[in-house]
Amino acid sequence: MQIPDKLKNYDTLLFAAIAAFAIYTFCSYSGIGISPDSIMYTSAARSFVANGTLLTFNHIPIVDFPVFYPLFLGIISFITRVDPVAFGATLNMILFATLIYTSGWIMSRFVPSSRIYKWLVLAAIILNPGLLQVYSYLWSETLFILEALFFLIVFRKYMLTYAGKWLVFAAIIAAVACITRYAAVTIVGTGGLLLLLDRKLPIRKKIGHILIYGVICISLLVANLTFNALHTGTVTGPREPSITSFGKNLFYFGSVFCEWMGMTPNMYTLVALPLAIIILAGFIAALAFNFTRRKLDSFENLAITFALVYGLFIVLSSTFSRYERINPRLLSPMYIPALWGYTSWGLLLLKRIRLKNMRITVATLFILMMLGYITKIYLVDKKRYDEQIADDYGNPGYTDDGWMESEFANYLRHIDKSIFDPRVTIYSDAHEAVYFFSGMSSYLVPHKFFKKDVEKFYKIKRFYLIWFNNLENKELINIKDIEKVKKLKVIKQFEEGAIYEYEGEDGLNSN
């Protein structure tokens, strides 16, 4: 008896509820995790509610990140009159539940499909440590990962029908994703690559559709970047050249997958690099195989294509531009498509096995492998729970106990702002922290790489400096560098840091 369509996804609803509860659990002690990026998003969202602008806490347009996620937070805050930090946990519970439901909906349409397979993979998605971390923080990936799945759904509808309306709809999703995270150019690239490879589409129609798709996809991104250039002089903020090689980035890429597979760090040295090569080469081989079979329109192939394009983009961009080292957060949008790409073949294999006993044996082995994997990542999650929730610490960041119980942070929360001359600029090695705890605007001390900015900073005749000792950033000039050139007066001293003032007196080593 065939199950009615309306009943097919009731089990998926249950998994979605479990997903929401998982995020609730990891946010139950200290609320949503807050990182420096989170504070940038939050301050821009508050600016939108207050003034209809998207300015960060230091009164400049948000540039390092695209505009849609803070706009998204701002719209919710405007409607609910609740601050993003306060509703962040609830929002991420909803987003993660929606992600799980969407994933289940897609897997129900795999060819062939399997309810047991869907259950196992949904469990593996919910328990993935990288996704649980992402959805425990106020980060734009929470929205971007969902947008990527929406794109796969709509673009597949286009590939099945070649109807212009579905192409435009897919392009609009890609355009919005591009102003959610700059890495969403990989969504654009996924659609463009599939259009180029599709041999069913007549060449004249293909050219027209590629042009339509490309123009719509990049429209919002071009507008965002143009606005940035006109108002700040840079398109995505100051960027430094990479200090990691292609081979090193491949190793870091593989290390993330080692972590996701439950391997211990001492295994990374031998396994990470070969694993990265195997993963990316496997996606290339699978895409080539589907191209020869003229079978590009399946969800499985769309997922493989996105995983390949996204993975290569992260490795290559990390080789040319410096940002945070490749980690689970950066690769989190790739996890679900990669998981589908490397497990859905099992369904095809079972379909082709004619002998019942052999089919049962293979199915049993597959289930046992998946259960083993699920158990491994569950143990990783449990360790995180024990360290962050059970032991009463919270998600690492500005809401964890280390900060909440800090004497310096507590002083900033209740600081008398009259101690500062409003005409004098405040600098810090963690300007996000200054804003988060005190509500005051400040500016980041310059990066060592930008020599002209450093020289300009040292020429300033008077400034305040709020310095956090436990947040040493090797890319920034440090307090010792500054004290060699400037004679700083201590306004307030703490074990965790200090507030200084400079009034024009140079240090002993000044020129």
From TrEMBL:
Primary residence: membrane
Annotated membrane topology: Multi-pass membrane protein
Keywords linked to the UniProt accession: Cell membrane, Glycosyltransferase, Membrane, Transferase, Transmembrane, Transmembrane helix
GO molecular function, one term: pentosyltransferase activity
Superkingdom as given in the UniProt entry: Bacteria
Annotated compartments: Cell membrane
Coiled coil: none
Biological process (GO), any one: lipopolysaccharide biosynthetic process
A GO cellular-component term linked to this record: plasma membrane
Transmembrane segments annotated in the record for this chain: 12-34, 54-78, 85-104, 116-135, 142-160, 166-197, 209-230, 267-289, 301-320, 332-350, 362-380
Protein name per its UniProtKB record: Glycosyltransferase RgtA/B/C/D-like domain-containing protein
Organism encoding this protein: Mucilaginibacter terrigena
